[in-house]
Amino acid sequence: MIEFHDVTVHFAGQPAPAVDRVSLAIERGDCFGILGQSGAGKSTLVRTVNLLQVPTCGHVMVHGHKVDGILSAAALRSLRLKVGMIFQHFNLIKNATVFDNVAFNLKASGADRTTIAAKVPQLLDAVGLSGKEAVYPPALSGGQKQRVAIARALANDPEILLCDEATSALDPDTTAEIVALLQQLKEEHHLTVLFITHQMEVAKKLFNKVALMQRGRVVETASTYDFFARPQSAYGQQLVAQYQHDLLPDELWRSEPELFEIIYKLDHAFDSVIAAAMHRFDVDINILGGRVEYIGGKPLGRLIISIARCPSAALKQEVLAFLAQSTYLTALTPPHSAAVGAADAGTGADAAVAGTAADNAAGAGAEASSEA
Ligand SMILES: Nc1ncnc2c1ncn2[C@@H]1O[C@H](COP(=O)(O)OP(=O)(O)OP(=O)(O)O)[C@@H](O)[C@H]1O
Ligand SMILES: [Mg+2]
Protein backbone atom coordinates (compact mmCIF):
# COMPACT_ATOMS: atom_id res chain seq x y z
CA MET A 1 0.00 0.00 0.00
CA ILE A 2 2.65 2.53 1.09
CA GLU A 3 6.24 1.43 0.89
CA PHE A 4 9.33 3.40 1.71
CA HIS A 5 12.44 1.89 0.16
CA ASP A 6 15.66 3.33 1.56
CA VAL A 7 14.21 6.83 1.51
CA THR A 8 16.63 9.66 2.25
CA VAL A 9 15.88 13.36 2.33
CA HIS A 10 18.91 15.60 2.67
CA PHE A 11 18.17 19.33 2.74
CA ALA A 12 20.77 21.52 1.11
CA GLY A 13 23.16 23.07 3.60
CA GLN A 14 22.21 20.66 6.42
CA PRO A 15 25.00 18.59 7.96
CA ALA A 16 22.89 15.41 8.23
CA PRO A 17 19.91 14.05 6.31
CA ALA A 18 16.48 14.79 7.80
CA VAL A 19 15.38 11.29 6.74
CA ASP A 20 18.09 8.68 6.54
CA ARG A 21 17.60 5.45 4.55
CA VAL A 22 14.12 4.65 5.87
CA SER A 23 12.42 1.44 4.75
CA LEU A 24 8.87 0.74 5.95
CA ALA A 25 5.79 -1.04 4.67
CA ILE A 26 2.34 0.23 5.59
CA GLU A 27 -0.36 -2.25 4.65
CA ARG A 28 -3.87 -1.56 3.47
CA GLY A 29 -6.10 -0.87 6.48
CA ASP A 30 -3.22 -0.14 8.85
CA CYS A 31 -3.42 2.71 11.27
CA PHE A 32 0.30 3.19 11.36
CA GLY A 33 1.90 5.53 13.86
CA ILE A 34 5.16 7.39 13.57
CA LEU A 35 6.65 8.36 16.91
CA GLY A 36 9.86 10.19 17.69
CA GLN A 37 11.50 13.26 19.07
CA SER A 38 11.17 16.74 17.58
CA GLY A 39 13.33 17.09 14.49
CA ALA A 40 13.54 13.30 13.98
CA GLY A 41 12.29 13.63 10.41
CA LYS A 42 8.71 12.41 10.88
CA SER A 43 6.98 15.16 8.93
CA THR A 44 9.59 15.11 6.21
CA LEU A 45 9.14 11.35 5.77
CA VAL A 46 5.35 11.49 5.67
CA ARG A 47 5.38 14.39 3.20
CA THR A 48 7.15 12.18 0.67
CA VAL A 49 3.96 10.09 0.33
CA ASN A 50 2.07 12.87 -1.47
CA LEU A 51 5.23 14.37 -2.87
CA LEU A 52 5.08 17.54 -0.81
CA GLN A 53 8.68 16.49 -0.30
CA VAL A 54 10.73 14.80 -2.99
CA PRO A 55 13.19 12.20 -1.66
CA THR A 56 16.86 12.84 -2.33
CA CYS A 57 17.23 9.13 -2.97
CA GLY A 58 15.26 5.94 -2.44
CA HIS A 59 11.70 5.28 -3.54
CA VAL A 60 8.19 5.72 -2.21
CA MET A 61 5.53 3.42 -3.60
CA VAL A 62 1.78 3.95 -3.27
CA HIS A 63 -0.35 1.03 -4.51
CA GLY A 64 2.74 -0.36 -6.22
CA HIS A 65 3.38 2.84 -8.20
CA LYS A 66 6.54 4.83 -7.76
CA VAL A 67 5.59 8.24 -6.40
CA ASP A 68 8.98 9.88 -6.65
CA GLY A 69 9.08 9.25 -10.39
CA ILE A 70 5.93 11.31 -11.04
CA LEU A 71 6.63 14.09 -13.47
CA SER A 72 3.33 15.17 -15.00
CA ALA A 73 0.90 17.52 -13.26
CA ALA A 74 -1.98 15.15 -14.07
CA ALA A 75 -0.29 12.19 -12.39
CA LEU A 76 0.57 14.32 -9.36
CA ARG A 77 -3.05 15.47 -9.09
CA SER A 78 -4.29 11.90 -9.30
CA LEU A 79 -1.86 10.88 -6.52
CA ARG A 80 -2.99 13.72 -4.26
CA LEU A 81 -6.63 12.75 -4.78
CA LYS A 82 -5.80 9.37 -3.29
CA VAL A 83 -4.03 10.90 -0.31
CA GLY A 84 -5.81 13.20 2.16
CA MET A 85 -3.87 15.09 4.81
CA ILE A 86 -4.61 16.82 8.11
CA PHE A 87 -2.31 18.93 10.26
CA GLN A 88 -1.73 20.06 13.84
CA HIS A 89 -2.92 23.62 13.16
CA PHE A 90 -5.75 22.62 10.83
CA ASN A 91 -4.58 24.82 7.90
CA LEU A 92 -8.08 26.14 7.17
CA ILE A 93 -8.71 29.20 5.06
CA LYS A 94 -9.75 31.77 7.68
CA ASN A 95 -11.79 34.03 5.47
CA ALA A 96 -13.70 31.22 3.76
CA THR A 97 -16.77 29.56 5.28
CA VAL A 98 -16.78 25.98 6.50
CA PHE A 99 -18.64 25.07 3.29
CA ASP A 100 -16.00 26.71 1.11
CA ASN A 101 -13.15 25.16 3.06
CA VAL A 102 -14.52 21.69 2.43
CA ALA A 103 -15.51 22.54 -1.16
CA PHE A 104 -11.95 23.69 -1.85
CA ASN A 105 -10.62 20.17 -2.43
CA LEU A 106 -13.64 19.22 -4.51
CA LYS A 107 -13.14 22.25 -6.77
CA ALA A 108 -9.47 21.39 -7.07
CA SER A 109 -10.40 17.94 -8.34
CA GLY A 110 -12.76 19.44 -10.93
CA ALA A 111 -16.10 18.54 -9.28
CA ASP A 112 -19.10 20.45 -10.65
CA ARG A 113 -21.40 22.72 -8.61
CA THR A 114 -24.16 20.11 -8.21
CA THR A 115 -21.72 17.51 -6.91
CA ILE A 116 -20.19 20.02 -4.50
CA ALA A 117 -23.60 21.17 -3.24
CA ALA A 118 -24.59 17.57 -2.54
CA LYS A 119 -21.29 16.34 -1.16
CA VAL A 120 -20.24 19.07 1.29
CA PRO A 121 -23.28 18.58 3.58
CA GLN A 122 -22.68 14.80 3.54
CA LEU A 123 -19.05 15.32 4.57
CA LEU A 124 -20.01 17.77 7.31
CA ASP A 125 -22.60 15.33 8.57
CA ALA A 126 -19.97 12.58 8.70
CA VAL A 127 -17.76 14.71 10.96
CA GLY A 128 -20.64 15.92 13.15
CA LEU A 129 -20.78 19.50 11.86
CA SER A 130 -24.14 19.63 10.10
CA GLY A 131 -25.51 23.15 10.07
CA LYS A 132 -22.09 24.86 10.34
CA GLU A 133 -21.80 25.50 6.59
CA ALA A 134 -21.91 29.30 6.84
CA VAL A 135 -19.61 29.65 9.86
CA TYR A 136 -16.06 31.00 9.49
CA PRO A 137 -13.15 29.07 11.09
CA PRO A 138 -12.26 31.71 13.73
CA ALA A 139 -15.70 31.08 15.29
CA LEU A 140 -15.00 27.35 15.73
CA SER A 141 -13.32 25.46 18.58
CA GLY A 142 -10.09 23.57 17.93
CA GLY A 143 -11.94 20.27 17.74
CA GLN A 144 -14.47 21.70 15.30
CA LYS A 145 -11.69 23.14 13.13
CA GLN A 146 -10.06 19.72 12.97
CA ARG A 147 -13.42 18.21 12.00
CA VAL A 148 -13.62 20.66 9.09
CA ALA A 149 -10.08 19.72 8.10
CA ILE A 150 -11.01 16.03 8.22
CA ALA A 151 -14.09 16.65 6.05
CA ARG A 152 -11.90 18.53 3.57
CA ALA A 153 -9.30 15.75 3.58
CA LEU A 154 -11.97 13.14 2.85
CA ALA A 155 -13.72 15.19 0.16
CA ASN A 156 -12.26 13.25 -2.76
CA ASP A 157 -12.69 9.81 -1.16
CA PRO A 158 -8.98 9.21 -0.59
CA GLU A 159 -7.67 5.77 0.28
CA ILE A 160 -4.89 7.13 2.45
CA LEU A 161 -5.09 9.70 5.22
CA LEU A 162 -1.89 11.35 6.44
CA CYS A 163 -2.13 12.98 9.86
CA ASP A 164 0.70 15.20 11.08
CA GLU A 165 0.22 15.75 14.83
CA ALA A 166 -3.50 16.09 14.11
CA THR A 167 -4.49 15.97 17.77
CA SER A 168 -1.48 17.70 19.32
CA ALA A 169 -3.12 21.13 19.61
CA LEU A 170 -6.25 19.74 21.28
CA ASP A 171 -7.13 19.19 24.94
CA PRO A 172 -7.40 15.58 26.16
CA ASP A 173 -11.20 15.33 25.85
CA THR A 174 -11.23 16.79 22.35
CA THR A 175 -8.30 14.57 21.42
CA ALA A 176 -10.32 11.52 22.50
CA GLU A 177 -13.29 12.74 20.40
CA ILE A 178 -11.15 13.23 17.29
CA VAL A 179 -9.48 9.84 17.82
CA ALA A 180 -12.90 8.20 18.05
CA LEU A 181 -14.06 10.04 14.92
CA LEU A 182 -10.96 8.96 12.99
CA GLN A 183 -11.45 5.36 14.09
CA GLN A 184 -15.04 5.46 12.85
CA LEU A 185 -14.19 7.16 9.54
CA LYS A 186 -11.28 4.80 8.98
CA GLU A 187 -13.67 1.84 9.09
CA GLU A 188 -16.46 3.49 7.08
CA HIS A 189 -14.16 4.79 4.35
CA HIS A 190 -11.72 1.84 4.36
CA LEU A 191 -8.84 4.20 4.95
CA THR A 192 -5.19 3.45 5.49
CA VAL A 193 -3.89 5.95 8.04
CA LEU A 194 -0.34 7.16 8.57
CA PHE A 195 -0.30 9.26 11.72
CA ILE A 196 2.51 11.22 13.39
CA THR A 197 2.16 11.92 17.08
CA HIS A 198 4.07 12.34 20.32
CA GLN A 199 0.94 11.57 22.37
CA MET A 200 1.31 8.08 23.80
CA GLU A 201 -2.39 7.84 24.66
CA VAL A 202 -3.25 8.46 21.01
CA ALA A 203 -0.70 5.86 19.93
CA LYS A 204 -2.18 3.22 22.24
CA LYS A 205 -5.77 3.86 21.19
CA LEU A 206 -5.42 4.43 17.49
CA PHE A 207 -2.49 2.55 15.99
CA ASN A 208 -2.05 -1.10 15.17
CA LYS A 209 1.64 -0.62 14.33
CA VAL A 210 4.25 1.95 15.16
CA ALA A 211 7.63 3.04 13.87
CA LEU A 212 9.95 5.02 16.09
CA MET A 213 12.23 7.61 14.51
CA GLN A 214 15.40 9.10 15.90
CA ARG A 215 17.71 11.44 14.00
CA GLY A 216 16.25 10.53 10.63
CA ARG A 217 16.40 6.76 11.15
CA VAL A 218 13.66 4.29 12.02
CA VAL A 219 15.06 2.63 15.13
CA GLU A 220 12.14 0.31 15.85
CA THR A 221 9.02 -1.01 14.13
CA ALA A 222 6.53 -3.09 16.08
CA SER A 223 2.89 -3.82 16.69
CA THR A 224 1.59 -1.19 19.11
CA TYR A 225 1.04 -3.90 21.71
CA ASP A 226 4.61 -5.15 21.50
CA PHE A 227 5.97 -1.63 21.53
CA PHE A 228 4.26 -0.79 24.81
CA ALA A 229 4.81 -4.22 26.35
CA ARG A 230 8.43 -4.69 25.36
CA PRO A 231 10.11 -1.94 23.37
CA GLN A 232 13.27 -3.20 21.70
CA SER A 233 15.37 -0.13 21.00
CA ALA A 234 17.10 1.85 23.75
CA TYR A 235 15.16 4.93 22.67
CA GLY A 236 11.86 3.00 22.70
CA GLN A 237 12.60 1.70 26.19
CA GLN A 238 13.41 5.20 27.35
CA LEU A 239 10.23 6.61 25.84
CA VAL A 240 7.89 3.97 27.28
CA ALA A 241 9.66 4.04 30.68
CA GLN A 242 9.37 7.82 30.79
CA TYR A 243 5.69 7.61 29.93
CA GLN A 244 5.12 5.05 32.70
CA HIS A 245 7.13 7.14 35.18
CA ASP A 246 4.97 10.12 34.43
CA LEU A 247 1.91 8.11 35.48
CA LEU A 248 3.39 7.31 38.93
CA PRO A 249 2.88 9.75 41.81
CA ASP A 250 6.00 11.29 43.39
CA GLU A 251 4.84 10.08 46.84
CA LEU A 252 5.49 6.53 45.72
CA TRP A 253 9.13 7.24 44.99
CA ARG A 254 9.56 8.97 48.33
CA SER A 255 8.28 5.98 50.30
CA GLU A 256 9.79 3.15 48.22
CA PRO A 257 13.44 3.26 47.20
CA GLU A 258 13.29 0.24 44.90
CA LEU A 259 10.37 -0.26 42.57
CA PHE A 260 9.88 -2.85 39.88
CA GLU A 261 7.43 -2.92 37.05
CA ILE A 262 6.12 -6.23 35.87
CA ILE A 263 4.20 -6.64 32.67
CA TYR A 264 2.32 -9.86 32.31
CA LYS A 265 3.15 -11.77 29.19
CA LEU A 266 0.05 -12.29 27.12
CA ASP A 267 -0.80 -15.85 28.09
CA HIS A 268 -0.09 -15.15 31.75
CA ALA A 269 -2.28 -12.07 31.87
CA PHE A 270 -4.25 -13.11 34.87
CA ASP A 271 -1.95 -15.59 36.56
CA SER A 272 -1.36 -15.27 40.28
CA VAL A 273 2.40 -15.07 39.87
CA ILE A 274 2.78 -12.70 42.82
CA ALA A 275 1.02 -15.02 45.23
CA ALA A 276 3.15 -17.91 43.96
CA ALA A 277 6.38 -15.92 44.51
CA MET A 278 5.39 -14.89 48.05
CA HIS A 279 4.49 -18.45 48.92
CA ARG A 280 7.60 -19.97 47.42
CA PHE A 281 10.18 -17.54 48.85
CA ASP A 282 8.37 -16.40 52.01
CA VAL A 283 8.75 -12.70 51.17
CA ASP A 284 6.18 -9.90 50.89
CA ILE A 285 5.47 -8.37 47.53
CA ASN A 286 3.66 -5.06 47.78
CA ILE A 287 1.50 -4.06 44.87
CA LEU A 288 1.76 -0.27 44.70
CA GLY A 289 0.06 0.51 41.45
CA GLY A 290 -0.99 -0.95 38.19
CA ARG A 291 -3.74 -1.64 35.77
CA VAL A 292 -4.78 -3.80 32.92
CA GLU A 293 -5.22 -1.86 29.73
CA TYR A 294 -6.31 -3.12 26.36
CA ILE A 295 -4.22 -2.35 23.31
CA GLY A 296 -5.76 -3.53 20.08
CA GLY A 297 -8.19 -5.61 22.16
CA LYS A 298 -5.38 -7.51 23.95
CA PRO A 299 -4.86 -7.17 27.69
CA LEU A 300 -1.60 -5.60 28.84
CA GLY A 301 -1.30 -5.89 32.61
CA ARG A 302 1.23 -3.70 34.39
CA LEU A 303 1.94 -3.81 38.10
CA ILE A 304 4.30 -1.67 40.16
CA ILE A 305 5.69 -3.72 43.02
CA SER A 306 8.28 -3.63 45.77
CA ILE A 307 9.77 -6.59 47.60
CA ALA A 308 9.74 -6.47 51.39
CA ARG A 309 10.70 -8.77 54.26
CA CYS A 310 13.48 -10.14 52.10
CA PRO A 311 16.51 -11.03 54.24
CA SER A 312 19.20 -11.10 51.53
CA ALA A 313 20.11 -9.60 48.19
CA ALA A 314 20.62 -13.11 46.82
CA LEU A 315 17.07 -14.10 47.73
CA LYS A 316 15.77 -10.91 46.14
CA GLN A 317 17.52 -11.87 42.92
CA GLU A 318 15.86 -15.29 43.10
CA VAL A 319 12.46 -13.70 43.59
CA LEU A 320 13.05 -11.38 40.65
CA ALA A 321 14.19 -14.28 38.53
CA PHE A 322 11.05 -16.22 39.42
CA LEU A 323 8.83 -13.26 38.48
CA ALA A 324 10.75 -12.80 35.23
CA GLN A 325 9.76 -16.28 34.10
CA SER A 326 6.17 -15.29 33.45
CA THR A 327 6.41 -11.49 33.31
CA TYR A 328 8.57 -8.83 31.74
CA LEU A 329 10.33 -7.29 34.69
CA THR A 330 12.02 -3.90 34.79
CA ALA A 331 13.76 -2.13 37.67
CA LEU A 332 12.41 1.40 37.72
CA THR A 333 14.55 4.42 38.43
CA PRO A 334 13.11 7.52 40.09
CA PRO A 335 12.10 10.12 37.50
CA HIS A 336 14.37 12.83 38.89
CA SER A 337 17.43 10.66 39.41
CA ALA A 338 20.69 11.23 37.58
CA ALA A 339 19.92 8.26 35.34
CA VAL A 340 16.71 9.80 34.02
CA GLY A 341 18.39 13.17 33.63
CA ALA A 342 20.97 11.52 31.42
CA ALA A 343 18.24 9.71 29.48
CA ASP A 344 16.53 13.04 28.81
CA ALA A 345 19.74 14.15 27.19
CA GLY A 346 19.28 11.29 24.74
CA THR A 347 21.82 8.81 26.06
CA GLY A 348 19.28 6.11 26.81
CA ALA A 349 20.89 5.64 30.25
CA ASP A 350 17.53 5.13 31.92
CA ALA A 351 16.63 2.34 29.58
CA ALA A 352 20.09 0.88 29.93
CA VAL A 353 19.71 0.77 33.72
CA ALA A 354 16.25 -0.78 33.47
CA GLY A 355 17.36 -3.16 30.77
CA THR A 356 20.32 -4.38 32.79
CA ALA A 357 18.13 -5.18 35.79
CA ALA A 358 15.62 -7.00 33.63
CA ASP A 359 18.33 -8.90 31.79
CA ASN A 360 19.95 -9.92 35.07
CA ALA A 361 16.62 -11.07 36.38
CA ALA A 362 15.84 -12.92 33.17
CA GLY A 363 19.27 -14.55 33.21
CA ALA A 364 18.80 -15.61 36.81
CA GLY A 365 15.33 -16.79 35.81
CA ALA A 366 16.83 -19.23 33.36
CA GLU A 367 18.99 -20.61 36.16
CA ALA A 368 16.08 -20.76 38.56
CA SER A 369 13.90 -22.60 36.08
CA SER A 370 16.60 -25.15 35.36
CA GLU A 371 16.80 -25.81 39.09
CA ALA A 372 13.07 -26.24 39.38
N1 LIG B 1 12.52 22.69 4.22
C1 LIG B 1 13.53 22.41 5.04
N2 LIG B 1 14.76 22.90 4.82
C2 LIG B 1 15.80 22.60 5.63
N3 LIG B 1 15.71 21.82 6.70
C3 LIG B 1 14.50 21.28 6.97
C4 LIG B 1 13.35 21.56 6.18
N4 LIG B 1 12.29 20.89 6.69
C5 LIG B 1 12.77 20.24 7.78
N5 LIG B 1 14.08 20.48 7.95
C6 LIG B 1 14.93 19.90 8.99
O1 LIG B 1 14.82 18.50 8.91
C7 LIG B 1 14.81 17.91 10.19
C8 LIG B 1 13.56 17.07 10.35
O2 LIG B 1 12.43 17.92 10.37
P1 LIG B 1 10.95 17.39 10.52
O3 LIG B 1 10.06 18.55 10.44
O4 LIG B 1 10.73 16.30 9.53
O5 LIG B 1 10.98 16.77 11.98
P2 LIG B 1 9.77 16.21 12.86
O6 LIG B 1 10.19 14.87 13.34
O7 LIG B 1 8.50 16.31 12.11
O8 LIG B 1 9.79 17.22 14.09
P3 LIG B 1 8.55 17.82 14.95
O9 LIG B 1 8.14 16.74 15.91
O10 LIG B 1 9.17 18.97 15.68
O11 LIG B 1 7.48 18.23 14.00
C9 LIG B 1 14.92 19.06 11.19
O12 LIG B 1 16.26 19.19 11.56
C10 LIG B 1 14.46 20.24 10.39
O13 LIG B 1 15.05 21.42 10.87
MG1 LIG C 1 6.77 17.41 12.37
- Report the C-alpha radius of gyration, rounded: 24 Å
Structural class: alpha/beta
Distance between the termini: 49 Å
The total tally of domains equals: 2
Major beta-sheet overview: 6 strands, mixed
Count of separate DSSP helical elements = 14
Q: Helix proportion of residues, in percent?
A: 40-55%
Q: Indicate the CATH architecture of the largest domain.
A: 3-Layer(aba) Sandwich
CATH class of the largest domain: Alpha Beta
Quaternary form:
single chain
**Going across the major beta sheet, what is the strand order?**
6-7-8-3-9-10
Look at the structure and give the mean pLDDT: 86
Please provide the count of β strands. Answer: 14
Bound molecules: adenosine-5'-triphosphate, magnesium ion
Strand content: 25-35%
* Shape designation: elongated
Uncertain spans, ≥5 residues at pLDDT below 50? 337-372
SSE sequence, one letter per element: EEEHEEHEHHHEHEHEEHHHEHEEHEHH
Q: What would CATH call the homologous superfamily of the largest domain? A: P-loop containing nucleotide triphosphate hydrolases
CATH topology of the largest domain: Rossmann fold
Helix and strand layout, with pairings?
Elements: E1 2-9, E2 19-26, E3 31-36, H1 42-47, E4 57-62, E5 65-66, H2 73-82, E6 83-87, H3 98-108, H4 113-126, H5 142-153, E7 160-164, H6 172-188, E8 192-196, H7 200-206, E9 209-214, E10 217-223, H8 224-229, H9 234-247, H10 250-255, E11 259-264, H11 273-281, E12 284-295, E13 298-308, H12 313-326, E14 327-332, H13 338-344, H14 349-371
Bound molecules: adenosine-5'-triphosphate and magnesium ion (MG).
